[in-house]
Amino acid sequence: MPDRMSDPAGPIGGITTEPLWVRRVLIGVAVAFLAFFLLLPLAAVFTEALRGGWAAYRDAFEDPDARAAIALTLTVASIAVPLNLVFGLAAAWAIAKFEFRGKSLLITLIDLPFSVSPVVAGLVFVLLFGAQGVLGPTLRSHGIQIIFALPGIVLATVFVTFPFIARELIPLMQDQGRSDEEAATTLGASGWRTFWSVTLPNVKWALLYGVLLCNARAMGEFGAVAVVSGHIRGQTNTMPLHVEILYNEYNLVAAFAMASLLAGLALVTLAIKSFLEWRFSGSIASASGH
Predict the structure, then answer these.
(1) Alpha-carbon gap, residue 159 to 134, rounded angstroms
(2) 3-state class (DSSP) for residue 240
(3) Cβ contacts of 207 within 8 Å, gap of 6 or more
(4) CA 256 from chain center: how many Å?
(5) CA pair distance 281, 134, nearest whole angstrom
(6) Which residues of 267-286 are buried (b: 16+ CB within 10 A; e: fewer)?
(7) Would you call 186 exposed, middle or buried from its count of C-beta atoms within 10 A (0-12, 13-18, 19+)?
(8) Full-prediction pTM beyond 0.85?
(9) Which of 54, 64, 111, 248 has its CA 20 to 30 A from that of 281?
(10) C-alpha closest to that of 121 among 226, 234, 2
């Protein structure tokens, strides 16, 4: 008779009590799902991108429109991510460390982009800042263009990405409580000194993780940016929009080449994300051990 205490499939020594064949079926289904819906499309992107050879792949990035799309994507991300970094830190600090009226409303508003379609968000910006929008005539009279220009793309990107950093920081800061900050204040530290010396070091890995997710979404956003950009080649097309244009023109090699660059950035993001998850979990374990 097997020893239930030492049996790895038992209720004490193991994670589950299901039979071995059930576990293998579940693992097989999960692996097959990932292979079919993730690995296979990813492999297809790189295969199609290299179908014409390395020369054709390299030539796809020599196109001025392609270079403009890459530059615009990096520019938008370099603006949107720092803005969300400031907002995410401020919102998380306020929600986790203070009690104030409207706190639940603020949390709800932070989650709003998760429940609103990016296309709808883009349409809202058009209604506000477009030529026939609420503020459009006033902006035009002052020579300011938001829609079909860089500011509109940045606004749309900030809107769809601002929950990522705040949502990574809020649970951690709430779990850490206020004891460290209160101790620093008791010892005479100012608010800024407390933030830089106590709060920020305690959340640095979660902050980097949130920045990583925010940057990945900023570079890959399509729906909201498609509405406010105007699809002007060489001017307002980001990388995802440029892929769509090339694909619609049946320039498949160039389209998949640009898509492979986005996929490569996603893989790099995934690798860094895995490292940060490991480092972040290690930091939590060390903190709990002390």
Answers:
(1) 19
(2) helix
(3) 85, 88, 89, 165, 168, 169, 200
(4) 22
(5) 47
(6) eebeeebeebeeebeeeeee
(7) exposed
(8) no
(9) 111
(10) 226
φ/ψ region of 237 (left if φ > 0, alpha if ψ in -120 to 50, else beta) reads beta
Count CB atoms within 10 A of the CB of residue 259. Answer: 23
Tokens of 205: 């890995």
**CA–CA dist 53, 109 (Å, integer):** 48
pLDDT in tens, 208-237: 889 999 999 999 999 999 999 988 888 999
Q: How far is CA 228 from the centre of its chain?
A: 20
Please write the tens of the pLDDT for every residue from 35-81. 888 889 889 999 999 988 999 999 999 999 999 999 999 999 999 99
Amino acid at residue number 35: A
Helix (H, G, I), strand (E, B) or coil at 38: helix
Closest CA to 62 of 286, 265, 257: 257
Q: In this structure, which amino acid lies at residue 235?
A: Q
Q: Is 178 exposed, middle or buried (0-12, 13-18, 19+ CB in 10 A)?
A: middle
Residues 6+ apart with CB under 8 A from 65: 233, 234, 237, 242
Identity of residue 125 = F
